[in-house]
Amino acid sequence: MSPRLPPAVARLGMRQVGRRVLDPELPWPVQRQRLDQVMRASPLPRGTSVRQTMLGGVPAEVVAARHAGPGRTVVHFHGGGYCVGSALLARGWAARLSAQAGCQVILPEYRLAPGHRYPAALHDAHQVLNALAGPVGPASIVLSGDSAGGGLALALLLARRDADGAGGLPAGCILLSPWLDLGQDRSAHPDLVRRDVLLSPGWLAACARAYADPASWADPAVSPLHAEHRGLPPLLIQAGGDELLAPDASQLAARASAAGVDVSYTRWPGMWHDFTLQPGMLAAADSALDQAAWFVTAVTGG
Questions:
Q1: Both ends of the chain: CA-CA distance in Å?
Q2: Using CA atoms, how far apart are residues 107 and 75, in angstroms rounded to an integer?
Q3: Of 98, 144, 147, 223, which is the active-site residue?
Q4: Under the phi-then-psi rule, with left for phi > 0, alpha for psi from -120 to 50, and beta for the rest, what region is 81?
Q5: Are 87 and 109 in contact (CB under 8 A)?
Q6: How far apart are CA 296 and CA 91, in angstroms?
Q7: Is-catalytic flag, 243?
Q8: Which end of the chain, N or C, is less surrounded by CB atoms within 10 Å?
Q9: Strand-pair partners of 55
């Protein structure tokens, strides 16, 4: 186990990542390299296996604890504003989720903007889910994503609903600090701008422009907060109280619940964007992981 950090110490570290890595003035390749360097320092629990594979032509990692089997599968899309990030971002979270829920976790390496703009990432997400749904079956699959990956997971779920109906839907969806509305002016919430140690309105705006044309930002496939949310499987939404994207999480919880969706929404006061990806280091992240493991087990019939 990694030593737990006091939240104040972890907050200082995240502030440095926000300033030195997620800087809109830095070229995208530099941001990607620096972010991967930070994440490589995160240890994995003993007994974790990480295997490289291809699913529907998309490279992916399969993360599994020693006792985990393929009968329960979580497909998690990493964050990074659709422009940076890799499976390294969520590998530690995936390893601990696998250990607690007895599931394998798939981390797709979907294509990134600006080299691959919308709908490349969504196309890759479809390819991965289609490749898994045959041998595994949708009833044993849970979609998941953090930040932009949360938006991607929800967009995929909505497209699956509209194409196949309830019979083809995964068992549930986990959304960690999801980015669901690319067109929202984040500077309109100055209190969150001040408190969010990782994200800035300028970086989110740069990512939004790199991913899709502004004319497309209201499209539910790009900003799934604008979709009709009826007919979705159970959702688990987790967010920090001190993050710029907190309004997205709360608005989705309210709208989906009003549409009759089974929604579990938890907001941790004082926590920053994507704090949930730091289990073993933060007590709040451990609590969030416990809830995610419970959710995966519950919706897949465990």
A1: 26
A2: 6
A3: 147
A4: left
A5: yes
A6: 17
A7: yes
A8: N
A9: 58
**What is this structure's pTM?**
0.96
Task: Extract the tokens encoding 75.
Answer: 């497909």
| 50 class by beta-carbon count within 10 Å (0-12 exposed, 13-18 middle, 19+ buried) | middle
What is the rounded CA–CA span in Å between residue 143 and residue 152?
A: 10
273 is catalytic: yes
In the set 76, 78, 229, 273, the catalytic residue is 273
Q: Which two tokens mark 78? A: 């990493």
Cα atoms found within 13 Å of the Cα of residue 141, Cβ hemisphere only: 22
**Set 126, 177, 200, 243: catalytic member:** 243
Listed in sequence order, the residues at least 6 apart from 14 whose beta carbon sits closer than 8 Å to its beta carbon are 197, 198, 272
Could you read off the pLDDT tens digit of each residue along the chain, which spans 302 residues? 455 778 888 889 999 999 999 999 999 999 999 999 998 877 899 999 999 999 999 999 999 999 887 789 999 999 999 999 999 999 999 999 999 999 999 999 999 999 999 999 999 999 999 999 877 788 999 999 999 999 999 999 999 999 865 458 999 999 999 999 999 999 999 999 999 999 999 999 999 999 999 999 999 999 999 999 999 999 999 999 999 999 999 999 999 999 999 999 999 999 999 999 999 999 999 999 999 999 999 999 86
177 is catalytic: no
**Cβ 133 vs Cβ 168: under 8 Å:** yes
CA distances from 271 to 10, 177, 197, 198, 202 (A): 10, 11, 10, 11, 21
Distance CA 269, CA 104 (A): 30
Q: How far apart are CA 276 and CA 288, in angstroms?
A: 6
Cα 258 from chain centroid (whole Å): 23
